[in-house]
Amino acid sequence: MSAQETDRKRLREAIELAARCPVSPSAFSVGAIITDADDRVLATGYSRETDPHDHAEESALAKLAPDDPRLARATLYTSLEPCSTRASRPVTCTRHILDAGIPRVVFAWREPDLFVDCEGAETLRAAGREVVELDELAHLVRATNSHLPGIEP
Fold first, then answer.
1. Mind listing the pLDDT tens digit for each residue in 91-118?
2. What would the pLDDT profile of 43-82 be if each residue is shown by its tens digit?
3. Any catalytic annotation for residue 57?
4. Residue 56: exposed, middle, or buried by beta-carbon count in 10 A (0-12, 13-18, 19+)?
5. 31 - beta bridge partners?
6. 94 within 8 A of 30, measured Cβ to Cβ
7. CB-count exposure of residue 47 (10 Å: 0-12, 13-18, 19+)
């Protein structure tokens, strides 16, 4: 399987995880998967998995030790661009990703400015991370989030 095929497969799995999110009228439903350098799943998470304020990336990272050496060569797949501004907690998903040392992030849909302004992709790139946007899958993420005002599949 090529790297692009692997990215699409894992990102589709992250989008499927988002369907598990308890629906919220004030938050996106997001799924995340962290894989190691050999594409083995290290952790998964989805928004509001254990707490109403959990973000998917935060939930997945919480299942790993912060100093897990596999994170230095990991890829994080997330259905929505990681947040760079957050209303519910002081630490953004972008900051969690940078602090964990994850070098590569793949996402499907840029976060619209429905709740906060987001510059997650730009922030990660500026910090030297590889960021891959597979916007051909964005319609699936919009469908998962069609419960929010102004979001159409």
1. 899 999 999 999 999 999 987 775 556 7
2. 999 999 999 999 999 999 999 999 999 999 999 999 999 9
3. yes
4. buried
5. 46
6. no
7. buried
Position of tokens 């793949």? 106
User: What per-residue confidence (pLDDT) applies to 101?
Assistant: 97
Catalytic-labelled residue, pool 5, 13, 16, 57: 57
Read off the pLDDT of residues 116-129 as tens digits, 9 standing for 90 and up.
567 889 999 999 99
| DSSP per residue, 2-60 | -HHHHHHHHHHHHHHHHTTSPP-TTS---EEEEE-TTS-EEEEEETTSSSTT--HHHHH
Report which of 24, 53, 44 is spatially closest to residue 145, judged by C-alpha positions. Answer: 24
63, two tokens: 């299942």
Cα(15)–Cα(9) distance, integer angstroms: 10
83 within 8 A of 118, measured Cβ to Cβ: yes
Q: Which residues contact 153 (CB under 8 A, 6 or more apart)?
A: 139, 142, 143, 146
Give the mean pLDDT of the chain: 92
Phi, psi (degrees; rounded to nearest 5) at 5? -65, -40
